[in-house]
Amino acid sequence: MSGANGLSPVTVVGLGPMGQAMATALLRSGHPVTVWNRTAGRGADLIARGATLAPTPAAAVTASELTILSLTDYQAMYEILGPVTGSSRRSGALAGKVLVNLSSDTPAASREAAEWAAGHGAGFVTGGVMVPAPAVGGPGAYVFYSGSGTVFAAHEPTLRLIGEPRYLGEDPGLAQLFYQANLDVFLTALSSLLHATALITAAGVPAADFLPGALNLLTDIPAMIGDGRDLARLLEDGEHPGDLSTAQMMGATADHIVRTSEKAGVDTRLPKAVKAHYDLAIAAGRGTENWTVLYEILKAAAA
User: 174-202 and 107-119 are packed helices; what angle lies between their axes, rounded to 10 degrees?
Assistant: First the structure.
């Protein structure tokens, strides 16, 4: 059943900051929204804005064709929705429904979840929201999706309200792969930013004297290493010319950061991990090649 404005109802399961932000964006656009959360009381603000609180998970998924999940991980989906599944594809609350799981987990977990959903007669799409909760539904928000192209296309207009949809393909694991890979960059950058700030403040220098320039450095990196497409071409072609920043030179800098950290009494695990990559490249006889040769070392470690 659609709302008075013709928009289809949507259910949101999981009302942490991200789930609440998504439900708010859907309400703002006029969709009838049903919500459910394991911790009672979290949906009070949404109810005040017009959302309907489902008494049970079964009632939540029954209320809409489309259920969006925003949970800690995929195991939470099984714990919440497992009890409402039937004994076959045609029975149970999930039969004929669509689940869009925007929780964080691994690509393998996403593929297993797609099989589980299909086994209970539900369409399944996985996704990863690439902005913090306050930015959901706003300019610049985007979400990776993968899984059934037919299911995604049918609900793309609704999902677009959360952020620009970036559909990656039929493999249910692709969205989580891109999500985790992007967060690999993000989390490492955040740790390095805090580690560097600890170095500065250990010398008695205010953090405010350092952080603005450090943030500018992060945004200047593309100008230093080239366009992402150019970098990708070099990596794919295995081209690592050592005419500028060689692994040997960068490794020496990494060693200086370790020693500076030791002297300052700042934790050394992050800089030692970075230094270890350059040590491996140098030990493999590739120290005179560009720093991008680390890509070959990292790939070989995974083989």
Answer: 150
Sequential DSSP letters for the chain: ---TTSPPPEEEE--SHHHHHHHHHHHHTT--EEEE-SSTTTTHHHHHTT-EE-SSHHHHHHT-SEEEE--SSHHHHHHHHGGGB-SSTTSBTTTT-EEEE-----HHHHHHHHHHHHHTT-EEEEEEE-S-GGGTTSTT-EEEEEE-HHHHHHHHHHHTTTSEEEE--S-TTHHHHHHHHHHHHHHHHHHHHHHHHHHHHHTT--GGGTHHHHHHHHHHHHHHH--HHHHHHHHHHT----SSSBHHHHHHHHHHHHHHHHHHT---HHHHHHHHHHHHHHHTT-TTSBGGGHHHHHHHHH-
The predicted-structure confidence for 135-176, as pLDDT tens digits, reads as follows 999 999 999 999 999 999 999 999 999 999 999 999 999 999
Sign (positive/negative) of CA torsion 87, 92, 98, 101?
Answer: negative
Q: 99 near 74, Cβ under 8 Å? A: no
Q: Give the global pTM.
A: 0.91
Distances (CA, A) of 28 to 81, 130, 223: 27, 20, 39
Distance CA 116, CA 94 (A): 11
Separation in Å, CA 80 to CA 74, 112, 166, 283 = 10, 16, 27, 50
CA distances from 138 to 19, 132, 164, 282 (A): 15, 11, 9, 46
- Got the DSSP string for 237-282? HT----SSSBHHHHHHHHHHHHHHHHHHT---HHHHHHHHHHHHHH
Q: Using one digit for the tens of pLDDT, what is the confidence trace for 186-197?
A: 999 999 999 999
Rounded to whole angstroms, how far apart are CA atoms 57 and 68?
12
Spatial separation of the C-alpha atoms in residues 67 and 120, rounded to whole Å: 14
